[in-house]
Amino acid sequence: MGRFLIRGEQGHDICPELYPVPGEPIIDKPGRGAFTYTDFELLLKIKGVKNLVIAGVTTDVCVSSTIREASDRGFDCLLVEDGTAATKHEFHKAVHDGLTLEGGIFGATCKLEDLAPYVERLAETRRNNKA
Predict the structure, then answer these.
(1) What DSSP element (H or E) covers 56?
(2) Which residues pair with 84 in a beta bridge?
(3) How many Cβ atoms sit within 10 Å of the Cβ of residue 65?
(4) Which helix (H) or strand (E) holds 122?
(5) Which of 12, 42, 70, 73 has the most CB atoms around its CB within 10 Å?
(6) pLDDT digits over 69-110, tens only?
(7) What's this model's pTM, rounded to 2 decimal places?
(8) Cα-based distances in Å from 83 to 102, 110, 125
């Protein structure tokens, strides 16, 4: 696989707008799926997380692998359709279409505009609970 999977190599780092806050865990993903050879599942279970909102690249490789791994481990997945990308539109569409087969066997999809208000309300609720 490419050198971009190695911390410190060009193309590996997180974009500044999404950089974690101090103390927030960073998962170095050495392969295609986020669960393989990482402590991602352990971190999620410790926090009691059962539902995942998935975005990223590439839809047909890393995103799809992560969703399948998550589903196999009992997590419910919501894929943000316009929050993922692939090298070809048909690859991107195939993953989105396949995700919801058989009543959503691997998860569900949504658009960012539909998800954003819920995330904003959740963030506000958490801020108010800390006050």
Answers:
(1) strand 51-57
(2) 56
(3) 18
(4) helix 112-130
(5) 70
(6) 999 999 999 999 999 999 999 999 999 888 888 888 889 999
(7) 0.83
(8) 23, 9, 24
